[in-house]
Amino acid sequence: MKKVFLFLLLTVTVMTIGCKPKDHHATPVGDSFVVPEPADVVLYQVNPRVFAASNSFQAIINCLDSIEDLGVNMLWIMPIYPIGEEKSKNSPYSVRDYKAVAPEYGTIDDLRMLVESCHERGMGVILDWVANHTAWDNVWLKQHPDWYTHDSTGNIIFPPGTDWTDVADLNYDNKDMRAAMIDAMRFWVDSVGVDGFRCDVADQVPVDFWTECIDNLRAAAKPRNLIMLAEGANPDNFKAGFDLNYAWEFMGAIAQVMKNEAKVGKLISVDKHEYESLDRGKFKLRFTTNHDEATKASPVKLYGGPKASMAAFVATTMLHGGMLVYGSQEVGYPETINFFHYVPVNWNANPAMRDEYKKLIAIYNEHPALRSSGKVVPFDDDENNVLIVDRVLNNDNVLVLVNVRDAAHNVELPAMWAGKSVKNLFSGTEMQLGKHITMQPYQYLLLGNVNQ
């Protein structure tokens, strides 16, 4: 029994040592924190259930220096509200009380300290918001059954077209429910100081509600800005006031390309399709994984190994910006993560991969051309195996090359780059380019002018 106890103690120690906090204490910063512009957001998704089995907010605080060190400037925290017990699947997306904190994560004061600690480090916080449905034991259902959708026999239903039997569908024809929903969201802006929301299944909620809601939230938050992210692909999300929505189509494309089920040109065509109808100042969130995708496969396994997963990340985020990192991918967690339960992650695993993410994010932050507002100039690879894109914004110019195959390929460089002396932005070394370049399996290059 002693041996078992010592093994468990050693395991917990190894998993948490990489998240030791610095010797300082967060203090309220008032209005000194400035929310990044949507084009500059580098989002880190926090699943509390990979940080600790209990008191997760404190465990996340202990990891903030490590998260900040990656170079991210915004945290998205998955739902932190009490979870429904009736018909429960233990999903954090089954909300029992919109104005409370789940005991497994800590207290509302712990959450306030987490937000303050993020602001102290120059990072914003957006909360996950579940507006489409509630738990069956949410107080709303008992007090206001008319706030929910009913079938022809008068029974409240779960969301149509889903298997989400643990939640009850809300009726957006009811004006009182809409007002209560906005009031609940304002609670977290006013009393905790969060910097916006990631809105779950936003496409299933009426656009006119989001317009009213976002206008109300932004007015209440002034002079602070808010970042609003829609989990959806409906272009009307942006008309309603969202800053970003999901690049689901691109995520599907990068998976196909990396599996050699599609040519690299598909990435260019999908990128064009996702952006061609967007107004200036609106952006797509690009990702190689998130909490939903990680339940199916880790990016290391989905894309064909550690090197392939990094190539996929570069092709996804450097092509047109909109960067998301799901907490655990930076340490190459190799297995699936079921966010309905606690899954321990070793934050000290694969330090070389974590350092690679850190360097890539630093390059992304240092070069505005790589972010969403930069111009995208693609070039053809005759064999369609290497992504070649020139990113341009004012005097900033970066050539992105990514070999998406597990074999070397020789490609012709764009004429304006051929023969130039350039800087490898990842290694910091200078290179003399010829007319062609050989890209090793899953190799990527981010090249800038020598004086950049």
Quick recap:
This protein is of the alpha/beta class. Helix content is 32%, strand content 18%.
Give structural attributes.
single chain; 452 residues; alpha/beta; 8-stranded parallel beta sheet; 6-stranded antiparallel beta sheet; 18 strands; 32% helix; 18% strand; globular; disordered N terminus
What can you tell me about this protein's structure?
By secondary structure, this protein is α/β, with parallel strands linked by helices. The protein is built from 13 helices and 18 strands. The chain has helices spanning 2-16, 56-70, 108-120, 139-143, 175-191, 207-221, 236-239, 248-258, 265-275, 291-294, 299-302, 306-318, 351-366, and strands at 42-46, 74-77, 124-129, 133-135, 167-169, 196-199, 227-230, 244-246, 283-285, 323-326, 375-379, 386-393, 396-403, 409-412, 421-424, 430-432, 436-439, 444-449. Strand 2, helix 3 (108-120) and strand 3 (124-129) form a beta-alpha-beta unit. Helix 5 (175-191) packs parallel to helix 6, helix 8 (248-258) runs antiparallel to helix 9 and helix 8 runs antiparallel to helix 12 (306-318). The protein is globular.
